[in-house]
Design goal:
This protein is mostly helical. The chain has a single domain, classed as Tetracycline Repressor, domain 2 (Orthogonal Bundle). The chain has 15 helices and no strands.
């Protein structure tokens, strides 16, 4: 029933979910390593249901979408949708699980890259932003609605997130031990910075924009690897920069 409905889906519904159905693979990971498995292959539910629900949840919020509306988006009866997924909460839990699986596999693929640790960090940043941009509706739901999970679903998500962040910290620690990161860099804070720099692309990235995910990610890498403060400014005496508040740029602050 689902396959027949999927084939006969209206064009507007098909276009609504098309950009998650066949994500473009632009990863910089070496070709000798297996590519990241798609979200469609990771999902335990028919993936068009995940796609349609993610778009609806992102647009209207989890509480603002009914199972009937999700069923209509994929051309199923309400009973047909319940056959695949017994509850909206279960659907949300599956979205978060799929997103976590994708991130863990992206990290694992990065760690298998040969070469110095710096190259693995570079590849991690690039491939993570690409992954989030390719599945932006899915990851937006993870950020927005994950607190709604409870019980076993929440514990599973928390464990997956803990494993992922631990793996990223290990990736950074390897670079620090190799002398490729400054010894005074706080690894946990650096992990959080990279997480925010790439993860929030699910909300601000627009595929119709002038720059694609790889270009944006390479720019972010340049910021991270080379900094953004000019050499002239960096050489300026500390007293020349002391009168500017970091909380309100451009406004002088009274001496303490």
């Amino acid at each position: 029933m689902f396959k027949r409905a999927q084939v006969n889906a209206r064009q507007d519904n098909a276009s609504d979910v098309s950009d998650l159905a066949m994500p473009k693979r632009r990863t910089n990971l070496k070709s000798e390593h297996a590519p990241i498995v798609s979200a469609k292959e990771k999902s335990r539910l028919p993936y068009p249901i995940i796609q349609a629900a993610a778009k609806l949840f992102r647009k209207h919020g989890f509480a603002g979408v009914s199972m009937r509306e999700i069923a209509e988006a994929v051309q199923l009866s309400k009973a047909g949708l319940y056959h695949h997924c017994p509850s909206k909460e279960g659907l949300l839990a599956e979205m978060v699980r799929v997103a976590g699986e994708l991130l863990l596999e992206q990290l694992d693929a990065t760690r298998k890259i040969a070469g110095p640790p710096r190259e693995r960090i570079h590849a991690f940043l690039i491939s993570r932003l690409q992954l989030v941009a390719d599945h932006r509706d899915l990851f937006a739901i993870v950020f927005q609605e994950r607190p709604l999970l409870s019980g076993a679903s929440f514990r599973d998500v928390a464990k997956s997130a803990q494993n992922y962040r631990s793996g990223v910290r290990q990736l950074l620690q390897e670079a620090q031990k190799a002398g490729e990161l400054r010894s005074d860099v706080d690894i946990h804070l650096l992990m959080l910075a990279i997480d925010g720099m790439t993860g929030w692309a699910c909300l601000w990235y627009r595929p119709e924009g002038k720059q694609g995910p790889e270009t944006i990610a390479e720019t972010f890498w340049s910021f991270l690897a080379h900094g953004v403060i000019s050499e002239q400014s960096a050489r300026a005496p500390t007293s020349a920069r002391r009168g500017v508040s970091s909380r309100t740029p451009g406004l002088p602050v009274a001496p303490v």
